Each structure stands twice: as C-alpha cells, then as structure tokens.
Amino acid sequence: MRHIFYTALLRLTSPALLARLVRRARTNAVPVARWREWLGAGEPLTPGTIWLHAASVGEVEAAVPLARALRSRYPEHALLMTTTTPEGAARVEAALGRDVQHAYLPLDLPGAVRRFLRRTRPAVALIVETELWPNLYRACEQAGIPLRVVSARLSPRSIKRYRRLQPLVRETLARAEKILAQDESAARGFRELGAPNARVQVVGNLKFDRALPPGHEQAADLRATVAPEGVPVWVAVSTREGEEEAVLEAHRAVRESHPDAVLLWVPRHRDRFDVAFEAARQAGFSVGRRTQCPGPPLDVLVGDTIGEIGVYLGAADAAFVGGSLVPLGGQNVLEPAALGLPVLVGPSTEHFTFAVERLGEQGALWRVQDAEALGRAVADLLGDSECRKTMGDAARTVIEEGRGAVECVLAELESRLHDLH
C-alpha cells in the first residue's frame, strides 16, 4: 500500500520532474535521443556489468576513484555509470571517458525502472552516497540484482525528512544487501531509519581517496593570468543562492587591508554564473569570466566552467566553501584540503559533518558565522603566510589519514564479484 501511494504521487509530479530535466538537457546540449533514458528507454547495454550510480557532479567526484579501481581490478566486467543530471554525465565523460558506459537513471516509476533493468541487466548495483528510490530498490531485489549503498551518508536534515516516510524508507533500506557508511554517525542514522543492523558497516568516505581535484595542473597559469606576482588571491567555491551578497561583502572587507586582492568565485550551479557576474559588476568590482580569459587588473573572476575546480582552488591562498552561510548543509571541504589550502566554512555544514569536524580538530579549518566574519578571516589568512602553511599542512594530513575507503569497499565486494565469474 505504501508503494502504491508513493508511486501515485510520483506519477503526478513526474511531468514537472521531466520538464526540469529536459531544460537542463537543452542547456547542456544533451542529444534529444538520450532524453528517453529518463523513462528507462534507450539502446541495450552490455549485460553482466558492474553498475555504479552517482547522481550528479559531487557524487561522481566521489565515485571516480572507486570506478577506476573497479576497472583495474575487474577488467573482465564492463562498468556502467549512471547519473541523474547532464552535469554529472559530463563529469563522467571528462574523468573516465571510454573506460565506462554511461546512461541516465530513470525516474523512479515502476515501468521506467523495469525498462532500465531490462536494457542494462547489471550483475551488481552500487549506489553512491544517499539515493533511496523505493521502486528501483524493489525492482533490483525482484530481479536478483544485489544492491549496495557505498560511501553512504545522512545529514540530520535528511534523517528528519526520511522519518516522515519511515515505513517506506525502512522497507526500502531492507532491500539493500549492504549499506557501507562514511562514518559511525551515518551508520547510526541508517539504523535509526530501520536498516537491519547486520547490513550496516562503516568503511569511510570515498572522497578522501580522490586524486587532486581536476584541473589543478593549470592553476599556476590561471593565477599568473589574473593576479600579478605577490597579489593575494582567495576563492569562494560551490556558493549557493543567497550567498552572493555575503561573498561580495566579504571581498569588500578583504580589500580594505589587501587593496589588490583578487576573488575567484565559483558558484555551485551553472545557472548562478551570470547571477554572480552581474552581482559583482553592480557592486562596482572589475569582473571577468574564466571563459573569456581576462587579464589583470581584475577584482573578481567568475569561474563559469564545469569540472575545473582544481584550477580555481590551486590558484588561491585560502578557500571558502559555500552552501554553508545559508542553511543548505555545506559543500565538499575535502577538495581544498587535498590541495593544502586553509578552509573556511559557515555555520551550516551537516552534509560534511565528519570532514569538517576532523579538519577543525586538526586546525585546518575555521568556521565563520557571517559575511563580516568571513571577510576578517580571509584578510587575516592572506596576511599570514605562516598560518596558511600550518593550516594547509594539517589539511593534507587529514586527507592522508582518511584514505582507504576504496580498498574497504573492494574488499567487501570481493566475494560477491567473485561469485559472478
């Protein structure tokens, strides 16, 4: 009965969901022939594959080291990666190219899911982070496809939301063969929502196992382009709607003590690129875009590209990670940490609680409460190279100590994949 109500509601909302996906598809030049994949249709794919699902860009970045390890250890098995968004698909192509097949995950409608499984026929399913789709999990169980959630995480907000649907969520979690959680807090959350205790295991966060963020090799060139030698540079990455004014207020404060400081500003989503550019221009800053390769003098450069986060981070002296000055739970703090940058975040970081706490404990991360505090913190860091080095070294140490999730997942999968021979 719960599935019936859930599916009926999804059928009512699916036209709006599809319309949103189509808009994103057009923006990202996705061929029209591929739009039908969101309804489970499309060309047949290699059967017996290892299937790895990563919803969008952030999940793909987490999945890349696991995907590479799977291709290396099990070359006899094709690897299928699915994403929900075109942006995620573009990142799969950029990071893995022809090493994997790609398809879009269909909406969680029974017919769409059945069509998807018929055309893909995976041998095992690995779902990255938190994607709980009742019809998908049910169909996998009925088809005999073992499904595991890897690098599984839950924020307090997610737990609260899922509790409203706990009977359906409990039923869905019970269909997963294993839930391999990022940390003990996530594991406890899944158990509280009804996951069988014996199926929940802590293996770590795949994002610790990532290589350096993509594009970091070109960082020195970008810095030389936008800032003369000796000019301080800070970066605000993955900023979300509602943080524009805070970022600009902070930059104004920074330039009171560092008049030539340059801000590299990288909004989280493509539709905020123009918003950021226009906000900086109206604030009176000299502003440019990455795609136009402007040179100095420049006050703000808007990073209007996808898949180049390492370029911006590597060109900066300190990093603010967005989604944290608004109540959205924060974004990935491990990317700047991997490059040895001091990390700044706002008060909302529940999506990355363990990483934020670990970096904070080791002195690699400062938390600020508002735009004024962010401006002061950035100014202090830009004026203290020794502090930046100490924080950066601590950040790299945290990353090194956190590695190992990929090997844990592979070890846990070994017996299951061995059975596929």
Report the helical percentage: 40-55%
Widest sheet, order of strands: 3-2-1-4-5-6-7
State the fourth-level CATH superfamily of the largest domain. Answer: 3-Deoxy-D-manno-octulosonic-acid transferase, N-terminal domain
CATH T-level topology of the largest domain = Rossmann fold
Shape: globular
Q: How many separate domains make up the residues? A: 2
Q: Kindly provide the radius of gyration, computed on alpha-carbon positions and rounded to a whole number of angstroms.
A: 22 Å
What share of residues are in beta strands?
5-15%
Structural class: alpha/beta
Mean pLDDT: 93
Give the CA-CA distance, first to last residue. Answer: 38 Å
What can be said about the biggest beta sheet? 7 strands, parallel
Second CATH tier, the architecture of the largest domain = 3-Layer(aba) Sandwich
Strand tally is 14
Number of helices: 17
Indicate the low-confidence ranges by residue numbers.
Answer: none
CATH class of the largest domain: Alpha Beta
